[in-house]
Amino acid sequence: MRYRKLGRTGFDVSEIGCGLWGMSGWSGSDDAESLQAMQIAVDSGCNFFDTAWAYGDGKSDALLGQIIAKNKGKRLYAASKIPPKNDKWPASPRDSYQDVFPAAHVFEYAKRIRQNLGTDSIDLLQLHAWDDGWTSDPEFEATVAKLKSDGLIRYFGLSLNRWEPNNGIRALRTGLVDAVQVIYNIFDQAPEDRLFSVCRELNVGVIARVPFDEGSLGGKLTVDTKFPAGDWRGGYFGPENLAATVERVEKLKKIVPGGMTLPEMALRFILSNADVSTTIPGMRRHGHVRENIAASDAGGLDAGLLGRLKRHRWDRTPKLWSD
Ligand SMILES: NC(=O)c1ccc[n+]([C@@H]2O[C@H](COP(=O)([O-])OP(=O)(O)OC[C@H]3O[C@@H](n4cnc5c(N)ncnc54)[C@H](OP(=O)(O)O)[C@@H]3O)[C@@H](O)[C@H]2O)c1
Hints:
single chain, about 325 residues, alpha/beta, TIM Barrel, 8-stranded parallel sheet, about 15% strand
């Protein structure tokens, strides 16, 4: 496993981190299997874990807390997220900062997350939704400053809305944001246009999330794939998106070099970009952990393949089903 700096936090984070959403929010999860997968990840050098209160109402924070407690001798970095008070994804410019992240709400959830993680101070606390129109609300700055001065968090981050990578740049320019979490993968290349250069300029860490486009770049979806009722992916890979996605994935499969798999190519595409600090695949299966971590050891892709992958960029705009 290779490591990179998470921007100005100075944390040396593993190139392959671990995303916990699926472990607590999707069908097909088993806690014992998830805990084992995380332990294998730790044993293989993974030290960065992304969770959120919203993943099972504190469940994934608590699963991560168990792993932290079991590995006291190792420095594991925990990133979690404050849920929007109005429970709305994506964030809407029609709502005010006060509607979504009033101070009492932020401090209450910071307390709950610390309890579930079993840590005094959260390494990276992110807001789970963001609209740049909220940047000038004085309570935003006051809240971040107090979270830090009270020692409740070490660093502060924003998780940007799906397919809106530029809706956060104003906030980054305040200097309050130490790391940003954004969707970046073979399809979603738009963060390269503006966001990444701003992060480089300000030394803000970049967490590339959803490296497999919620699973399509794992290569197993077909036009007949169905998800059980209540599984968020049933909406995302619904009638408007599933067939179009499968068609694009099939085109990608044709250019995977011999000896490489599609998921490996997907991760190595992301890691080829030096602006990325870490990527956080959802990996709740042992086999996936081993495969994904091997992608870090294999390193970036060659320029020829990267050039071909540029042509697979797919710019999308938020839809009712996409969050
Ligand atoms: N708003 C936000 O802040 C936000 C939103 C979304 C995600 N996130 C974070 O980003 C993390 C990653 O995103 P995600 O989990 O939604 O999606 P993802 O990482 O793009 O995809 C996860 C899917 O990929 C599959 N997979 C993993 N490794 C694989 C491999 N080697 N080969 C084939 N398939 C593989 C998993 O299979 P299985 O189903 O078998 O496990 C799962 O279905 C989340 O866990 C969460 O921490 C944050």
